[in-house]
């Protein structure tokens, strides 16, 4: 029952707030949190209903394989440069978020939840689960990262004199996954497509590199 | 549609199984995604046999993280306690990623890579 109410609410909110500052996911989550707080329904009870929705996280990640397959030719053409940029970005992204959080005194559980922050949520959940972080916290941090990138990204990239549409889309998708991709698509079709590709590839690259990077950082005494 | 979903779940379960059996620290869903790309590339699976369901799933991807996102209600105290490391690391790291990916890609393109 709650599942349907939530879903209906989400869709209503989505069609109402197309403006990216009112990111539909953010609005829906805040509304629901407020609703649960006010009605004093415990989260566990809500989650029973939400389970059906969460069940589809796994298949949705697999489904990302279809757009990836469709863009395989484009990837092959620019393959080397795209791969190199994303690997560098992914590694420096993990190192910087883990390093800064650790230096500022974050706890181990929070560090593990922060590590996959730039990756699309379903993949980030898988990574956090393997690391031993907190799943709902990761979801919240990933969404926050996406909104940060979507709001600040375009002006920051212009400041850096990024003029190539491919570089623009790639940076947005890698740093702020789906929410950044929605923003990149506003700039142009190529930016949107490349950003979608970047979110897919960055998810895979980060999932593969994460255990190694975390091992080094643990060895260096960050946590 | 049932055939579509069956193929997708097959990839997912094979991915989970591979992740579990080989004890590789890559989530099963990511391995499942790669398996689907391989299956399409080698024509084991026809594109029209997965695309309709995949399109629906990808389109609604954002909504799927509403329930886990609402779960942050359970961690408000933790977030408040570590607000500074969390917000500074997220902001700085996001800017670093944007800069690195954007600048490296643009440089490489100019060199014709």
UniProtKB/TrEMBL annotation, chain A:
Keyword entries, A-Z: Membrane, Transmembrane, Transmembrane helix
Cellular localisation: Membrane
Domain of life: Bacteria
Keyword Disulfide bond: no
Principal location class: membrane
GO cellular component, one term: membrane
Membrane-protein topology: Multi-pass membrane protein
Transmembrane parts of this sequence: 20-38, 50-70, 82-104, 134-153, 190-213
This protein's name: CidB/LrgB family autolysis modulator
UniProtKB/TrEMBL annotation, chain B:
Topological category with respect to the lipid bilayer: Multi-pass membrane protein
Residues spanning the membrane: 27-45, 57-78, 84-104
UniProt subcellular location: Cell membrane
A GO cellular component annotation in the UniProt record: plasma membrane
Sorted UniProt keywords: Cell membrane, Membrane, Transmembrane, Transmembrane helix
Pfam annotation, one family: LrgA
Predominant location: membrane
Key word Transmembrane present: yes
PANTHER family hit by this protein: HOLIN-LIKE PROTEIN CIDA-RELATED, UPF0299 MEMBRANE PROTEIN YOHJ
Name by which UniProt lists this protein: CidA/LrgA family protein
